Amino acid sequence: MYGGMKKTHISMVAGKGGVGKTTCAAAAAVHHALGGETTLIISTDPTPSLSHIFEVEDRRKPARVMDRLYLAELGVEEIKQMWDRKFGREVYEVFSSLVAVGYAEFVDFITSVLPGIGDEFMVDYIKELSQDRKYDHIIWDTAPLGQTLGLLKAPAMLSEHLRPAPRIYSRLKLGGETKKSVLDIIKGWASLSNDDIDFLKYQVKFVIITIPEALAVAQLDGIFDEINKHGLTPDQLVINNVVEDSTGSSFLKARAEQQKGYLEILFTRYQGIKIVKLPLFPGEIKGIDRLKELERYLFPVE
Ligand SMILES: Nc1ncnc2c1ncn2[C@@H]1O[C@H](COP(=O)(O)OP(=O)(O)OP(=O)(O)O)[C@@H](O)[C@H]1O
Ligand SMILES: [Mg+2]
């Protein structure tokens, strides 16, 4: 593709709850697969919405959806495994030097108490997947607004909180299996966080989904601010559920009229960014054929 050195393209689809993130992510995945790219669509949504929209029964991870398209919905179990592989034992060593707690109990606690933890691992996991070069494109369907923001905050927050730590831990040596000092472990976390934020910065494309309604428009600035604050830039804004045909019923006319003001605000406020409009479809969007209809709007021929 690129003279032998294939690069994995990564798109992260974000936005407030219920605006059509999963639908758009699925349509984008179909687009890239049809274009000949081996594509993975991935999420940590606790309800299996991707397999529902693709009408996939295959429970393997990844499951095959169609030619060149694979799907992985990671649940609590997979997230626990990721935790385990990545830094579970080390973090536990630190934690258990202060508090008496069993390992299984500790992991249960951590994965249940931090709702955004799936997405935090996802950055790391997708980074690894992209290094494998197995996929040409990875589409990441994220959890709604709050959790995604939490994810972006996580690495910076970690570094911040770790700052006083060396003073506390420098004299404490861990026994048993761990040869490293707590200080080394903490340094390891911090550099992992930095790698992840760099990865987001330089390799991931951010696609923000919104709808032309008051609350969604009001919350959008917050999403942009949060993304910018971390030195990241959104690449595309998708306005979903747009009704523009005013030749139809009075019902549609009223909706179109109401959306007009919000569309104007969006186009004025976000001039610097590529904007795509998607129509509100009469039926629900389920199955590959329906997604193909959406795909035409999402990727207009320019
Ligand atoms: N353009 C559209 N026309 C008609 N229906 C749509 C459109 N976009 C999305 N929908 C429908 O809206 C509902 C919500 O969409 P979706 O699940 O993609 O949102 P989401 O942002 O992923 O939600 P969540 O935040 O819960 O993950 C679905 O039933 C979907 O079929
Ligand atoms: Mg969703």
Please characterize this protein's 3D structure.
The chain has one domain (9-298): P-loop containing nucleotide triphosphate hydrolases (Rossmann fold). The chain is 53% helix and 16% strand. It is built from 11 helices and 8 strands. It has helices at residues 21-34, 49-53, 76-96, 103-113, 117-132, 145-162, 165-169, 182-203, 214-229, 250-269, 288-298; strands spanning 9-15, 39-43, 63-66, 69-73, 137-141, 204-210, 234-242, 274-279. Helix 6 packs across helix 8. Residues 21-22, 45, 49, 141 line the site of magnesium ion (MG).
Topology:
Layout: E1 9-15, H1 21-34, E2 39-43, H2 49-53, E3 63-66, E4 69-73, H3 76-96, H4 103-113, H5 117-132, E5 137-141, H6 145-162, H7 165-169, H8 182-203, E6 204-210, H9 214-229, E7 234-242, H10 250-269, E8 274-279, H11 288-298
Parallel strand pairs: 1-5, 1-6, 2-4, 2-5, 6-7, 7-8
Antiparallel strand pairs: 3-4
Helix pairs in contact: 1-11, 3-4, 3-5, 6-8
Bound molecules: adenosine-5'-triphosphate (ATP) and magnesium ion.
Distance separating the two termini: 22 Å
Helix/strand/pairing class, anyone?
Answer: alpha/beta
Low-confidence stretches: none
Sheet with the most strands, sense and barrel status: 8 strands, mixed
Q: Count the helices. How many?
A: 11
Computed over alpha carbons, the radius of gyration is: 21 Å
Helix content: 40-55%
- What quaternary form is this? single chain
Fourth-tier CATH superfamily name: P-loop containing nucleotide triphosphate hydrolases
Number of strands: 8
Distinct ligand kinds: adenosine-5'-triphosphate, magnesium ion
- Total domain units: 1
Strand proportion: 15-25%
**Order of neighbouring strands in the sheet with most strands:** 3-4-2-5-1-6-7-8
Q: Fill in the CATH topology.
A: Rossmann fold
Average pLDDT confidence is 82
Shape: globular
Based on the structure given, which CATH architecture is correct? 3-Layer(aba) Sandwich
By CATH reckoning, the class would read Alpha Beta
What series of H and E elements makes up the topology?
Answer: EHEHEEHHHEHHHEHEHEH
